[in-house]
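Moderator note: this is an archived Q&A kept for reference. The question asked for a predicted structure of one protein chain; the sequence and the answer are reproduced below.
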Amino acid sequence: MAIFGISLGSLIALYSYPPLFSNLLAVYMVPGIYLVVALALAFFLQDQLTRYWTLVILMIVLVAGTFVMPPAYYFLNGILDGNPAREIPSIVLGKGRGGYKRGGPYLVLSLPWNSERTNVRIQVYERTFSDAEPGDSVRLVFHPGAFSLPWYGSVLFK
C-alpha cells in the first residue's frame, strides 16, 4: 500500500510541477541502491534477524525515506516557488506520443538556456500537440523553482 501511495505522490508532483531538466533515472537510482542493499542484508542475515533488528528497521526507514524524498522535493520546489514566471522563446523541433509508460503527447523544443541552445522534451496537452508543427515559434512558460530546479507551465503560441 505504501508503494502505491509513493507512486501516486510521484505522479501528482511530476504532473503539477514538471521539472524542465531532470533525469528521473538518476533521481531514483539512490533509493534503488538502498533497496538492493536492504534486500541483500535481509537475505544474508535472515537467520540472525532478531540479533540485527535495529539495523533492519533502520534500513527499512532509510529505504522508505529515500523513495519519498524525490516527489517531496519536486512538489515543494513548485509550491514554495514565489518567483514570477518567465517566458523563453522556443522553436518546435518535433512532436510525438509517448505511449502508456512515457505519458501522452510531447513536443521537442529548442530553447536558449545558459548561453546555449538546448533541446527539451515537454509534455503538453492534446490541443497544444495538435496545434503545434515542427518549425513553429512558441514561448515556453517556466518558473525558476524554490530550490533552483526550474519547472515548466505551458507552451504559448506567438
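Archived answer notes: The first strand starts at residue 86 and ends at 97.
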